[in-house]
Amino acid sequence: MNPYIQRYILSGLRATPQVYAKLLEGITEEEADRRPDPERFSIREAIAHMADWDEIFRTRGERIRDEEVPLLPGFDEGQLALERNYAAMPVAESLERFIASRAALLAFFESLTPEQWKRHGNRDEIGMIDLSDLSIMILGHDGYHSEQFIRYREV
Questions:
Q1: Which residues does 133 contact at the CB level (< 8 Å), separation at least 6?
Q2: Do the beta carbons of residue 152 and residue 31 sit within 8 Å?
Q3: Are 42 and 148 in contact (CB under 8 A)?
Q4: How many CB atoms lie within 10 A of CB 147?
Q5: Torsion-angle region of residue 34: left (phi > 0), alpha (psi -120 to 50) or beta?
Q6: pLDDT tens digits for range 61-82
Q7: Interval 34-63: pLDDT, tens
Q8: Which of 30, 37, 95, 144 is the most buried (most CB within 10 A)?
Q9: What percent of the chain has pLDDT over 90?
């Protein structure tokens, strides 16, 4: 990956916990559980989801780094939310888990050599991705949920 672009992606990934902490500051229980879109997570569920997905993203990244074109199966995020009872998780606790999981994810990306950034895995839903693609996907995922938190708190 181009070092200039890499620096910006890692900076964005590093900032997300701070952005989420600010967006969730002073959240009420009612806001945490509001679900304007019945097909999407509530804020409470989404922040728990983010902590779990950072671990999934890091595991996928480690497999791409360590294996020859590993098959990276998808996950049913709705089922994971039910199994781990996201709807009952305290927002502050999930945010702390996310901060810790993001630190581990960043440590992984920061440890990569230029050659490792180019390694590929095969995502069963979308096809071949390299570690650069994965980092960009995570940054987009962060933005998606940032927008969700803003929108759900404005309703």
A1: none
A2: yes
A3: no
A4: 11
A5: beta
A6: 999 999 999 999 998 999 999 9
A7: 998 899 999 999 999 999 999 999 999 999
A8: 95
A9: 91
